[in-house]
Batch of 2 targets.
Target 1
Amino acid sequence: MTVTAFHRRPEPVEIARVTSTAAELLDVLWGRASTAPASASQLRLLHILEHQDGINLRTLAASLASTPPATSRLFDRLQAAGFVERENSPDDRREVRLRLSGRGRAYLADLRARREAELQAVLDLMPAAKRGALAEGLESFCAMAASRIHDDTQGSGRKTA
């Protein structure tokens, strides 16, 4: 992978290109931190359940931009691994609520710790001023991305992961 040079131009197109490269490098670093009992699709499902505990299958499928049968099969594999659980809704016996299990929560916590260790090894090589600028920029980026996701969710009635 070629690391893209950044030429101090604040235009969104240039920043998008550098951010895309950074995301690809993060993916490589995170891959090094993974013990991989879960695929990328399964990880997305786990993250959704972590933030939307007790959702139903239809909502989960919409969040994954998938079909209910495909989502059900994905969920079944994670349930067999002990990462997720189904429970009947107390309000409607026909509806099943989907939850992250204790084992699933522990897996995500361990994965995050390993990923953060990989990131910290890179950040330790950066000068303190550059780390500060990165933190400030990422905080702003996260706020704007979360706002856009929230606005998209409110506008379409569809939840995104």
Target 2
Amino acid sequence: MTETTSQVPPELACPIAPVVDLVFSRWTTPILWTLNEFGRQRFSELERRITTITPKVLTQRLRQLERDGLVVRTYHPEVPPRVEYEISALGRSLAPLFATLAEWSVNLDKVDQARQDYDARDRASHRRT
């Protein structure tokens, strides 16, 4: 017997919600995209490529992504020690999703225009009241 939508908690009713929470949480997408595009990276390389992230947040996100199985951390016991990060096979499986989103990004001008139109209508309606 299958569950009906009314029996499913609202936060689970949308099957993609957990994926969105996982993949599109703050900083996850730029980190995964960078590792997918540029391959294995040292921490400092990631920091240089994602210029607006703080070292503390980058460390936190990389740990979470490693825990989620989307990133692989490799420690090289040399002097000085070297740590590298790369996207895992599971993380690479998101590449088609990123490609689709990149294709859709051509619509961002339309989103901008829609926002401007909305704001203009909103300003006009406030002037009348």
